[in-house]
């Protein structure tokens, strides 16, 4: 039975009828930045998380090079590296349009990142060292993005 919709209809097609984003030769998803640049919320979230990570990294590096009686905690460095991998992984999932496939893993990693950044804020905020307090401010930004 013929379809009732016109061939030149402007109505959105069903998901099954849409063009598959996978390459027919390799089976790898094509990358497009339209998913980031076309959505202002996604662009703002990625920008804020990148800024928070950069602030945290620079303040942590400054704090680690200072001579202080209380050394910089090692788990904070793990939190910084974990959050970098998480930010890069989420950007990769958005660019390749595979968020539907990996949404449960992303939520799990975000939950772990929330715990790590919250613990890092607690360990750095209540000191007299201004570099550690700046790192704590960066961790607060990352915690807010995680939520």
* Helix segment tally: 5
Strand tally:
0
Shape: elongated
Low-confidence stretches: 14-20
What's the domain count? 1
Radius of gyration: 21 Å
Order of helices and strands: HHHHH
Portion in strands: under 5%
Work out the helicity level.
55-70%
| Protein structure class | mainly alpha
Between the first and last Cα atoms, what is the distance in angstroms? Answer: 50 Å
Largest pleated sheet: none
* Overall pLDDT metric: 83
Keywords: Membrane, Transmembrane, Transmembrane helix
Features:
single chain, mainly alpha, 5 helices, elongated, 147 residues
Topology of this protein?
Blueprint: H1 34-37, H2 40-65, H3 74-95, H4 99-124, H5 130-146
Describe this structure as you would to a colleague.
Keywords: Membrane, Transmembrane, Transmembrane helix. The chain crosses the membrane at residues 41-63, 75-96, 102-125. This protein is mainly alpha-helical. The longest helix has 26 residues, at 40-65. It contains five helices and no strands. The protein has helices spanning 34-37, 40-65, 74-95, 99-124, 130-146. The chain has one domain.
Quick recap of the structure?
This protein is mainly α and 147 residues long. Helices cover 65% and strands 0% of the residues. It has one domain (33-146).
């Amino acid at each position: 039975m013929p379809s009732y919709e016109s061939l030149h209809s402007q109505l959105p097609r069903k998901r099954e009828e849409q063009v598959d984003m996978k390459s027919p030769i390799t089976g790898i998803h094509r990358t497009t930045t339209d998913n980031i640049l076309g959505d202002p919320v996604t662009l703002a979230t990625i920008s804020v998380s990148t800024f928070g990570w950069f602030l945290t990294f620079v303040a942590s590096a400054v704090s680690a090079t200072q001579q202080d009686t209380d050394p910089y905690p090692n788990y904070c460095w793990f939190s910084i590296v974990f959050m970098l991998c998480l930010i890069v992984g989420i950007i990769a999932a958005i660019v390749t349009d595979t968020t539907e496939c990996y949404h449960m893993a992303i939520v799990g990693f975000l939950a772990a990142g929330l715990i790590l950044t919250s613990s890092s804020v607690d360990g750095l905020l209540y000191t007299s060292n201004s570099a550690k307090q700046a790192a704590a401010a960066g961790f607060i930004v990352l915690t807010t993005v995680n939520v």
